[in-house]
Amino acid sequence: MSKIYSLLAALGLAGLTLAAGPAAGQTALPTPGPRTCGTPAADSRQQARLKRRLPSYSPAKLAGPASAGALRTAATTYTLPVVVHIIHNGEAVGAGANISQAQVQSQIDALNEDYRNLNADGTKVPSPFQPLRADAQFQFVLAARDPSGQPLAEPGIERVRGAAKGFSGAPYADYYIDDVIKPATSWNPNQYVNIWVLALPGNELGYAQFPDNTARLGGLSTLGGDANTDGVVVTYTAFGRVGTLSAPYNQGRTLTHEMGHFLGLIHIWGDADCGNDYCPDTPTQETGNLYCPSFPHVSCSNGPSGDMFMNYMDYVDDACMQMFSGNQKDRMQAVMAAGTPRRTILLNSPALCNGTLTATATSSGAACPGSSVQLTATGAAGTTAYLWRGPNGYFSTQQNPTLANLTAAMAGTYTVTVSGAAGVCPGAASTTVVVSPAPPRPALVVSAPAQCPGAALTLSATNLVGSSLTYTWTLVSGDGLPATTNAPTLVVTPTQNSVYRLTLSGAGFGCATSDTIGVRLVAPVWSGATGNGNWFDAANWRSGCVPTRATNAVIPAGLATPYPVIGAGTAEVRTLTQQGSLLLAGGELALYGDHAGTGAFVQTGGTVATRGASAQSLRPATYRTLLVAGTGTKIIGSATITQALTLAGPVLATGAATLTLAATAQLSETETSYVLGQVQTTRTLATAADSFGGLGLTIAPASAPGATTVVRTTGQPQGVGAASSISRYFDIKAVASRGLLGATLTQQYQAHELNSLPESQLVMFRSVDAGATWTNEGATQRDATAKTVTRAFVTDLQGRWTLASATAPPTLAAVTYGISAFPVPFGAEGLSVQVSTPVAGPLSIKLYDMLGRVIYDRALATVEVGTSTVALPGAERLAPAKYVLVVQQGDQTARLNVVRQ
Ligand SMILES: [Zn+2]
Hints:
This protein is mainly β. It is built from six helices and 51 strands. The radius of gyration is 55 Å and the shape is elongated. The structure holds zinc ion. Zinc ion binds next to helix 5.
């Protein structure tokens, strides 16, 4: 005879005594005594019931493996839905057995803390047992829905007035609960953990039904009991931790304990004297501990730490139990892992469903054919899978699929079903897509397959259904749309490939329909069929179309017939791809697009003109006369101009190439139309001034430097102000750059090149190291009207020249005073003096004979900073002799002996 049975027998007597006290319906609380748990007795009763129902059934308990550790699997956190059936006597909510929602919630909170090892009083576990505390990894949620799927006003709570169900008066004996109350009130035990809260007789706090022993746990019978009795019963005064409660069972631990039975745990002493609870990590103990023992309590030779009386599966008061052990966790996890009936299946319970599913379509009203409608499904959080189905076998696994390019056949009902993790409502929702009628798509035709630019074409529509249709033609791209566009047929005159759209609408149609038709014009391709080479003869073009400013044209290579000749008139073309040769002898080749290709281009007369309104590029070629007009930007590569380049429109950019002006070519630019980039020319200079074909640089040499190449570089205007140069410079390379006689250099500039530099401060700068360092060469004359700066007495033309501010020079090399004369001795070529000075100022040059007489005297108003070469005109006429040259500038005086041979 185990002690528990004798204990229960004693308590049962006490319960009977107390049950005679308060009458049914009264709310007086029973006097608390030591903890009692009716689970073993209930188990005996349920096993007997099974035996009666199943005659071959054996209620024997499985000896089972003593090592619960062998059961251990990877632990999972399980969420179980709970319904609390509150069996009351008609009291107001919150009074007596009709406990409040808050009391229920406080119980679930306590349960979850205990089963996640989050109970604050876990710190009270004596230190030897602290390492054994386990997070059982169960959590319990109050069910959001009732068995019919309807949301519960009070989640997880069903209130049952006993009398309404024909129940006898409280308190209720266990057998009455199992035989009458449970079968009448149980919710599907495959979907809910059923908990009954009611008045139990005497001091009985609660009892549970064991699980079926699918996990083959020691100490449990094969079957736990019948389905309609499965669950947990707790007396209402021991349920939760706020509300109607009786100390010391007011911390919610009765349900913690009973739920342990429900999940396969047996009492920690094994319900026998020094019995086996099949959890090796709980010490063997003699019997259940009551009230609140002091640590340690040694029994069954289990010192020094003694009984684990603070375990939830002992019998101590609520405030004194604080833990499950690791092996107890293993048993409960094993029950779930084994697929135990009415346990594992709870994980997929629809009672966990806590969201709603909706389905919508984007458009609230009807959609038009050809448009798109988005379907939107909104499921509960955690929804992982969506499946839409609709008309004509439509399906999509996207959450929010788009129905593109709608047709009438796609109208109808679209239904989405969802599934997901526990807590997600499986379910379906639908939305309807309505497609408005529209006129049938018109069939558009054009009167001719291909046409020369500018010719008339007729567009017409067929497949026109419906009366009083409205026609609207619009231009998608290209040109040629007439003023009147509301008839079923339309005459267009495109000059380029064009696309037109016809839109149909009308009474009875909620939506419009449209379709487009493209008109493709033939590109003129030269054939030379007539044998005369006349550009303007349509028969010479394969398509019969003479090019226009709107059409591209091609001159293919390898023809046996004559290539085109333009002798007079204006030959317009957009982009001319010239793989075969072309001769321009007169008139004008007016380009509205690019000039491309590699065929021979010969210009013996006439003008090539760019007249386009958008970007144009010209092929590298030799142009005799080129006119840059129109409004578009132009690009030209390393082309050569033999006669004239006239800029009368936009900027002409050379890109990375250099445009060459032949020796006879003339450049004509304006402030707004000029060559951007590099343009060069080579001229052979004698002593006359040369302006290099209008390049903006004039050299007046006193002696002939011979072949002189000038490369002008023009950059984009910078507008950066002082310490910069203007945005153009000249690179000069002369055969003889160091003339005996100083040259006069004039640089011209344009207003946009000034970069905010004051014109009154412009002086010449020169660099002999490609712009790395600059020397201030001064200026002898400025003309703001002609936009020129002049420097006389230049000693050396070679190098890079630009204009910059004298007061804020880019980089100024130091200049010291010096003087030299050459040649020494001099002869018929004359004599020059080279002066280097750090300051500008007047200079006097005197030549004395050996008797000290002044025989030559020249005064200069100024010489500039840097080195100047000053010729002494007439010195060659001096008689052969020795002379003394005296050069004086300010307080500087230099003497040199010179000899006339
Ligand atoms: Zn128990």
